[in-house]
Amino acid sequence: QILQEGAESSRRQLLIEAFISAGRVDNITMVMGLHPQYLSSFWKTQYLLLRMDGPLPYHKRHYIAIMAAARHQCSYLVGLHMGEFLQVGGNPAWLQGLHCAPQKLRNLNEINKLLAHRPWLITKEHIEALLKPGENSWSLAELVQALVLLTHYHSLASFVFGCGINPEEDQDGEHGCRPPSPHSDNSPASDDSLGGSGGKDAMQEVEVLMERMKLLQESQLEEEGVTQEEMATRFELEKTESLLVAPSDIADHSLQSNVLCFVEDPEFGYKDFTRRGEQAPPTFRAQ
User: Fold this and answer.
1) Which end of the chain has fewer CB within 10 Å, C or N?
2) Is Cytoplasm given among the entry's keywords (predicted)?
């Protein structure tokens, strides 16, 4: 998609503003900059959520962003906001894991988990529990900002994975972006950070799969009477088997632990809520 006349200068202006404001232009901004109007809306929203006046102190906003991104194992965003958290005066001890954070923030874990994977299970009782008067209670204004931050970063994690965004060159290599692995529900795939070999490995796997498909087609030509359905079955079998092959290099699990320390109940994940023949659970609706 070619940028229209004048769009390049508006993109440049946005990137300059981002640099002046944050002291850096991260890769999310660079990718979104291909669509200046979208970047402009995104940047204003992000700036409002993280840097403008609000009920939550700045360091807690970044910690909530870390919690939300960690739920989807998006180590790029976790790493980004760990740096931001320290920059605004956050307590480094909190970054050892969720168990080191104040109880008030830890109480968000349940609603973070549900919002990330099964939002239809949220009930008014979840909100009431957080607002209940007590030492670690949330005010309504604080909770609204916290929930907006959680949902914002759940969505942004999808954008990071979808665009294959890698860490900036000056960012610590430990915070590489790790997409989910096809091999199991929660085991991380091989790291494809800048300068890594993950991209090459993926290309090799594709080439091997293409070679297998070619051999299948040749054998079909040699064999007479092979039906289209049988061919499709063989194709699917080859595809499935190629996904089950373990990656050639052993994954670095330190990266996974850097993210999972902010997650409680990591086994909890998405599950369909509209299954045929089953009664769908009630959905929570608010004005």
Assistant:
1) C
2) yes
Q: Show the tokens assigned to 167.
A: 């860490």
- State the amino acid at position 78 in one-letter form: V
DSSP state of 74: -
CB 89 within 8 A of CB 59: yes
Q: Tell me the two tokens of residue 126.
A: 């979840």
Which one from 74, 100, 163, 177 is the annotated catalytic residue? 74
pLDDT digits (tens, 9 = 90+) for 62-107: 999 999 999 999 989 999 999 999 999 999 999 999 999 999 999 9
| Residue 74 designated active-site | yes
- pTM comes to 0.65
- How many whole angstroms separate alpha carbon 100 and alpha carbon 106? 9
**How high is the mean pLDDT of the chain?**
77
Q: Containing H/E element for 216?
A: helix 198-222
Q: In the beta sheet, which residues pair with residue 180? A: 188
Burial of 25-49, coded b for 16+ CB within 10 Å and e otherwise, reads bbbbbeebbeebeebbebbeebeeb
For residue 67, CA distances in Å to 40, 56, 115 come to: 25, 15, 12
